[in-house]
Specification:
Blueprint lengths: L3 E5 L4 H12 L3 E6 L12 E4 L4 H10 L4 E5 L14 H14 L3 H14 L3 E2 L2 H4 L8 E2 L7 H19 L5 E5 L2 E5 L5 H9 L15 E4 L13 E2 L1 H9 L4 E5 L4 E2 L2 H11 L2 E5 L3
Helix pairs in contact: 3-4, 7-8, 8-9
C-alpha cells in the first residue's frame, strides 16, 4: 500500500481514517488544516498547514514519502480575501477562485487537480476504508413501513433533483410533502428547521413519520465529498419527528457505524440503502 497523506479537516471522519490506517498497518502522515482539524489527530505524525499553504503542504507530504492523499473532514468555504497563501498557493489561487464561482464541486475538483499536478494519487475515504459506505438494504434492526417506502422514493427523487442543480445533498419528506431541502446551511440546520414545523406535518420523537434522504450529486466529486451521516444525524432525525434515513448504496458514508446502529435502534429510526437508479 502507498503511504497515505491524510488532508484532515474537522469532524470524526479524519480520525476514523487515521485509526483505520493504524489498525491495518498502513503508513500515514496527517496534514492538519489550521482551524479545522481536531485535537484527536495530534498524536499522529504530521504537520499543521494553513488552508492556502499549498507549498508547505506538498513539501511536507513529499518529505514524508507520501504518494497518495485522501482529503477528508469538514472544511467550510473560505473567505478568499482573508487567506494567507504561500508562493505555491498564490500561483493556484486565481484558478481556484474561478472554479469556486462555478460551485462547490468545481472548487473541489480544482483543489484535487493541484495535488494531481504534484504527482499524488487521490483516494476517496470510502476507498481507504471499504466498509465506510452504506450498503443496500436496512442497517440495523428497524425497517421502513410501506408508507415510509413511498416517502423513500419521493425523498430520493427530491435529493437528486437539488443535487443536479448543485444546491445540496439532502431532503426531508413526510407523507409525500417536501418539508425541507438542504442548501448552504447543511443537514443539521435543515433538520432543525424540520423540527420547528407544525406537529401535524411530521411525526414526534419515538413515533416518526417521513424520511431524510441524502444522495450524491450527479456531478459529485466522489473522492472527497460524498454525503455523510453519523450519530448526530440520527439524533437530529429522531428529534425532527422523522422515521428514518435513506441513502444511495455505496454513495453515503456512515461514520461511527456501531454507534449509529445502536442509536438508530434505540430511537426507532430506520436506515436504508437503495440502489442508484
Amino acid at each position: 500500500m502507498q503511504k497515505l497523506g491524510l488532508i484532515a479537516g474537522g469532524g470524526s471522519l479524519p480520525v476514523e481514517i487515521a485509526q483505520h490506517c493504524e489498525r491495518s498497518g498502513r503508513a500515514l502522515f496527517v496534514i492538519r488544516l489550521k482551524g479545522f482539524a481536531g485535537p484527536n489527530l495530534a498524536p499522529y505524525a504530521g504537520a499543521e498547514v494553513g488552508l492556502a499553504e499549498l507549498g508547505k503542504c506538498f513539501k511536507a507530504l513529499k518529505r514524508a514519502g507520501c504518494t497518495a492523499v485522501c482529503l477528508a473532514g469538514n472544511v467550510s468555504r473560505p473567505d478568499f480575501a482573508a487567506l494567507m497563501p504561500d508562493l505555491r498557493g498564490l500561483a493556484a489561487l486565481p484558478a481556484v477562485i474561478a472554479a469556486a464561482r462555478r460551485g462547490d464541486d468545481a472548487l473541489l475538483r480544482a483543489v484535487l487537480g493541484e495535488f494531481e499536478k504534484e504527482g499524488f494519487a487521490i483516494e476517496g475515504a470510502h476507498e481507504v476504508m471499504d466498509d465506510l459506505a452504506l450498503g443496500a438494504g436496512a442497517l440495523g434492526a428497524r425497517a421502513p413501513s410501506p408508507e415510509d417506502l413511498a416517502d423513500v422514493g419521493r425523498a430520493m427523487e427530491v435529493a437528486r433533483a437539488i443535487g443536479a442543480l448543485d444546491i445540496g445533498q439532502a431532503a426531508a419528506v413526510s407523507r409525500g410533502l417536501v418539508l425541507a431541502v438542504e442548501a448552504a446551511e447543511g443537514t443539521d440546520a435543515m433538520l432543525a428547521r424540520v423540527a420547528g414545523l407544525p406537529a401535524h406535518l411530521r411525526g414526534q420523537p419515538g413515533a416518526g413519520i417521513g424520511v431524510l434522504a441524502k444522495a450524491p450529486k450527479p456531478i459529485q466529486e466522489t473522492r472527497v465529498d460524498l454525503p455523510t451521516i453519523g450519530p448526530a444525524t440520527v439524533r437530529a432525525v429522531a428529534a425532527a419527528g422523522l422515521a428514518g434515513i435513506v441513502g444511495q448504496a455505496g454513495g453515503l458514508l456512515v461514520l461511527d457505524r456501531d454507534t449509529v446502529i445502536a442509536l438508530a435502534d434505540e430511537l426507532g429510526v430506520f436506515i436504508l440503502g437503495v440502489e442508484a437508479p
